[in-house]
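Q: What would this chain look like folded?
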Amino acid sequence: MLLISSKIPCNTIGCLTNKGTKPQTITLPSNRIAIRYDELGIVILKPSIDRLTFGFVPDEKLLKKYDPAANLDEYKTYIKGSLAGDGFHTEITGLSYIQGVSFKKPPYSLYDVNLTFKPCPNSEPIIIQIMPKKGGYSFMRFDMNPNRITKKGMENFWTIIEEVVLLIPGHSISREDFLIWSKIYIAEIAVDILGARPSELEITSMTNNKPIPQKSHVYKSKTGRVQTKYPKVKKGKSDTEYVYDKRQERLDCGAEPIYGDFLHSRFECRVQKTTFYKLSNIKNRCVRVSIRTLDYGKFSKMKYTQHLFIRYALDRTLDKALEAIPPKFKPTYQNAYDTAMRKIWDAKKIWSYWPETLKNSDLIKTTKAV
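A: My prediction, written as structure tokens:
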């Protein structure tokens, strides 16, 4: 079980786990932690923006407010010339053409020019695309992971934007207008849960602080271990809230786990079709679910048949597990399950850090609401 040291510096937290292959200690800045459950060995981090996809759509009406008024076609031509020209692609800018990629599938197939921008050595690259091949798409498209870009990396990103997009001969387009012209297609908000696997977590859809019956789904990896849990599944629609094994996902992609052997689950919710200035006003997405974890202290005191039932319920959902129990025994086994599960999801407290997340992301510097 994960343990959190009580003898720690004021700005760090050391964690030890023996749920993995061997005990391991990690250190986390205390300002990243939302909730600690020392007795359970679980730490819940503050929300972060895991992925952001947005389009830049300049508007002729807004261009006219500058003196002298800019022509939209000339403005687009200037940006195309800057980003599509070889002269701008140097080691100093960090911009480079995407090579060796199949352009038969979106998003690369949708644009004539596909670039990557490496904001700094230890940051993940940003995809920048311009010149859509057909109508219906933004003039420019950006795909980034603010959670994996350093503060210095974001500063370098905005430097490039200011040099290429915000400035044209005779004009100085403001960063505020750039954000106004931009439309967010997908913003994935993540909350990391350290010290627990998805197989130990129960995620339930909620509305008005009450659980709602939904068709759920559990996805398993090739090894048979629970990989992802979806609390609700609707035909023809993508899931907007789910919990998955972030550590295993990185291993499957050939990447190093963020926290080594440390157990790392992630709750993720998806916000679609919004704007930068509306991000600060979006409603609490964490209230859409309730998450409980298996309390091994209570679990170990139960009968072996209850052990098997609880494990099966976590593996296939409680409703499916109860289907196998005779009616007269259902209350006993459901009570055992509820006793063994411990609520760890404080949606209000977790979401209270959302304004801080936006501020630290360096995406929006103004507070103007649009």
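The chain has a mean pLDDT of 82.
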